[in-house]
Amino acid sequence: MRWRLDALACALAGAASGVALVVGAVLHVEHRTSANVRSEMYSTQIPFDHTTPTPPRLVLLGRLVGSSAGQRVAEESAANGPAGKGAGMSRIIEFRMKLTPRQRILLHNRLSVKADEAYDDIETHGDAAVDLQDVWMVFDQFPACTWELPVSWRRAAARAFDDLVGDLDEGVLPRPRSLAEQLALVLSLAAARGAMIDHDYGPDVDELPAHPDDTNWEAVYDELLDDRDIEAFYSPDPADVAAWVAIAPPTTWFNPLPGTSPRNPARGYRR
Description:
This protein is an all-alpha fold. Helix content is about 50%, strand content about 0%. It has one domain (about 1-70, about 95-250). Strands 1-2 form a two-stranded antiparallel sheet. The longest helix is centred in the middle third of the chain and has 25 residues, at about 100-125. The radius of gyration is 19 Å and the shape is globular. It starts with a strand and ends in a 24-residue tail after the last helix.
């Protein structure tokens, strides 16, 4: 399931005016994995703070058959196996995207701001269910299936934004390691793209050199998000959402995705 960024931006604008997030969204369906594979991937619920050994590489390959991420892992395994470690790497990954300076700082800023806003929501509303008649900063933009979840879940979701900020601070691309991070990245990319279009940024961005790819957020979106399962939870069809919630309930959204390593469970929270 794939959303174009412009559709998501329109939907977010709708949410801000009290309209359901998914009204009028244009969905672009991409059949990459079957429901039974996803059910296997998300069947185990892991506590929000957890330490989980990374599954064996062959298990990951089996789980990711048919997905773009799985194909890439399989290709990298073939190229980096004992018979030829590193051989053919240039043929496997033909293109490694680099964020432009303006894209990097805009995305960093939006991720950081949304983390702050998520914590503000928690301080203001606590465990209260999201009500679109009230003022919410972030959690009203989350799928409706999350609106009644407790503070413990919301704090872990807020930290997902900060985890991606940390990746940028370390000089690496912010590739999501969980469904919660997919959600954080999708929302932040939409916000960063909107800020670029509206010139809604300060001198920290304006003083950076312009680049021809500054407005090419589709390429950023495609490169950073191998799998976009989180978008299924925004479907306008309640039956579709219910099916996905059965496969991947929100309590599993902090589980490491196949092919990724878990975050350090001792990393704590911003506040």
